[in-house]
Amino acid sequence: MNEEENSSSQMRKTKPQVDEHSKDRQLESFRENPQDQYMTTDQGVRINHTDDSLKAGSRGPLVMEDFHFREKMTHFDHESIPERVVHARGSGAHGYFQPYNDSMKEYTKAKFLTDPSSKTPVFVRFSTVVGSRGSADTVRDVRGFATKFYTEEGNYDLVGNNIPVFFIQDANKFADLVHSIKPDPDNEIPQASAAHDTFWDFASLMPEINHMIMWVLSDRAIPRSFRMMDGFGVHTFRFINEAGKSRFVKFHWRPMLGAHSLVWDEAQKLAGKDPDWLRRDLWDAIEMGDYPEFELSVQIVEEEDEFKFDFDLLDATKIIPEELVPRKPIGKMVLNRNPDNFFAETEQVAFHPGNLVPGIDVTNDPLLQGRLFSYIDTQINRFSSANFGEVPINRPVTTVHNHQGAGFMRQTINKGKANYWPNSIGGGCPMMAPENQGAFVHHMERVEGHKIRARSESFNDHYSQATLFWNSMTATEKKHIIKAAHFELGKVESEEIRRRMVGHFSKVSKELAQKVAEGIGVDVPENFNQESTGHYEANEASQKMKKGQSVKESPAVSMERNKVETATSRQVAILLEDGFDCNELTQVRQALMEAGAHAKIVSKLLGMRKASTGEEVKVDKSHLTTGSIMYDAIYVPDGEKSIQAMMKEGDALHFLNEAFKHCKTIATSGHGIALLEKSGIAGVSYAGSTSRTVKDDEGVITAGNDADADEFADAFIAAIKKHRHWGREEKSMVPA
Ligand code: HDD
Questions:
Q1: Considering the chain, what is the average pLDDT of its residues?
Q2: How distant, in Å, are the alpha carbons of 206, 238, 386 from that of 155?
Q3: What's the CA gap between 677 and 700, in Å, rounded?
Q4: What is d(CA 443, CA 373) in angstroms, rounded to the nearest whole number?
Q5: Which domains does the chain have, with CATH numbers?
Q6: CA-CA distance, 306 to 438, in Å (whole number)?
Q7: Ligand 1 within 6 A of CB of 317
Q8: Rounded to 10 degrees, what is the CA torsion of 379, 382, 383, 385?
Q9: For 509-529, b where at least 16 C-beta lie within 10 A, e where not — what string?
Q10: 148: CA distance to ligand 1 center in Å?
Q11: Ranges of Basic and acidic residues compositional bias (predicted)?
Q12: Is 25 part of any known ligand binding site?
């Protein structure tokens, strides 16, 4: 081999050097920047006038030869593509993933998970499932959590949700599920909501849905932020190590800020006042440098342990309780850059659970197997072309060489005559890569069986894990589930469907069924069984699985029990009018800033407000353009005149009352205490307005005007860290 041949063969073998910025560098060559440029046509011809079209006389008809008008109009007419059939509404962000260490080497040969010096670029798209592209962010729904890792071995997509199980067990039911949950086919009502007869009709006839229903009725389905929700790969996948050994694996994302939720009343109001709530939160956080961070971890099960549980690992309606198989942390993802263009990046990104790299493989989960077909198929519907992989956001940072050449909108110019394999005319290129050169080789799983359209009997237990979930909830979480069921089923007109659902709940928990039934005007049916819905009872095979390992409770599935307490990036509204106490405001603002929280001044009108001592502050938002639902906590600085003005302001009083009802932290001192009382906040014991005491009554922090300001600020921040003060839900309140 001469020197030239040697170096070209080296090039073939060398993987691209991928770093945190590789994808950004690649995207840079596609970015268009109009700064200091003349406007041109798509052909690059400069334009001197774009306000009028070419006419036969200034009052005459348009003329066909106006290439500028025709091009501009035609382009506009074709600017939309079909929205995703599910997960249509979403928000994206760029970032990177870095492993903590090489501890995963034992389990997987995927380099991006094992080399702690590597920072792999990622693009994440968070989404709701049911609503259209323009629907509200805060509806009760599962959230999508899809991550594209641009690894040095090609693209790997982890296309997960914020709930670790799914509605159905077999992909053949997906179209039915989605049809039932989407708006009704005749009148297209309701938008982005499961609360209608068709969904609950389907649910009540599909017992396998019960575990998922518990999660969807829980607060998981109304996250406070995309930055504060878990993510799950859902299915059991495989890890393959260098030696070719396979193990089962479940993927988890955990947000560093902890998983937190809205309350339902707040979520509904936000859907009207700020339908972009989650999208805006993600965007703003990244712009402000509060980069969302998520830890990736895995549960690993040895192949020989496949049948040791009381459920089937291939059944996507089951979790592996963490108490049986603890999570092993792998590394951290940081989202640190907003997209430049929503359409080019967030809308055009195309995920596919079959985008795998060496070291990760799929299992025979019948839901996953069906997904392996659906995702490419749906992209062809969205892009009208199989060339969607060439769109900049979808390109791997590795080079692409194959014979897939033509088709709509082909971008690359494939050289040479040989567009087939094998060939001698093209020197046999591109060549087949051996496994030790990073080729993906499917895990050699032994498979045998009769061709049969059937469900494995080991999938038959549809209630145990629903019960496990219910048993693992705190009293507050249980209450929220019941209220959610009252809302969802309360919107169902058919009494028969409501009763059937309560029948299923009775197999999950008698207490749950009874409490749900009380709110929706039906009785708990006696001796309800699956057969009445046309489905089979758990039979012998599933009874056998029931003897496998199980737990009765899994604290790991409760958000409340795993709360991360931090004030980082929390939004605090400061309500004031002219005459506020500037000293106190300055001290509390400083403390909030040091805790990583963001404070905004809210007042009746925009403009400047004057302190009792003459200093001025700028108002960030007027009551007209904001509301308590857009903040995590409220602070009212002392100041007699300021408080007196707010005593007469319905908006300020409502702001406080509503925040109280939503169990948010509220702090005030001195004269402010009277304002809290006036706002109708019930059942709180306050510190005296002139005392030295700082009092925390379920997150209502009050202090006398002689109290220590540091102590007051510390108590305020400690309460913000708790997220919500659910004990207040006990206090009977008029809806805010
Ligand atoms: Fe799916 C999109 C997650 C089951 C078919 N799915 C989609 C997205 C996420 C998920 C996050 C949005 C990706 C993006 O942001 O572009 N899907 C899941 C999870 C599932 C699941 C976690 C169960 C474990 N999905 C599932 C099944 C099928 C599909 C069973 C069909 C057999 N999903 C699709 C789809 C979508 C999609 C129709 C619509 C848009 C797209 O793919 O790109 O192909």
A1: 95
A2: 36, 17, 17
A3: 12
A4: 19
A5: 92-203+227-304+329-340+354-376 (2.40.180.10), 565-730 (3.40.50.880)
A6: 28
A7: no
A8: 60
A9: beebbebbbeebebebbeebe
A10: 14
A11: 16-34
A12: no
